[in-house]
Amino acid sequence: MYTDRVIEHFRNPHNMGKLDDYSAIGKVGNIVCGDVMWLYIKVEPDAESRDIITDISWETFGCTAAIATSSMVSDLAKGKTLDEAISLTNQDVASELGGLPPIKMHCSALAADALNEAIYTYLTQEEKPIPDALQKRHERIAKEVAELEKRYEAFEDKDKAPCS
Length: 164
Description:
alpha+beta, Sufe protein. Chain: A, 6 helices
């Protein structure tokens, strides 16, 4: 059963939609459940020249938990430095929602991954140093995306096969 906070974020999601003037995007998906998240971040320096997520939005195709975790991660990351945002975990997302059923914890991981991928993309584009922990997360996510694409291609090829 979902908490009231999960239901609230599902019914009234925060920061939903495509951000028109974004600095970077993080794209992730879960091969098992089929959820897909695109998370957009706008990054600008503050008075101390620290990179701040000044705006954030997302587009998610998924279940109640996927929508709620997308909404929550956007709330948690907005206004944070990139270093602070990188440190956000799926546990942080789930805790802020009052918990998730164990079978839905992967949604909070997907939301944290989308944020990390957006930050990774931004740092790469700007030719800025990438923290080791972020690099390792990106490599794990890249493997998952490659597997997802491989399975999609196999599905497409199967779909193109002549009928017997």
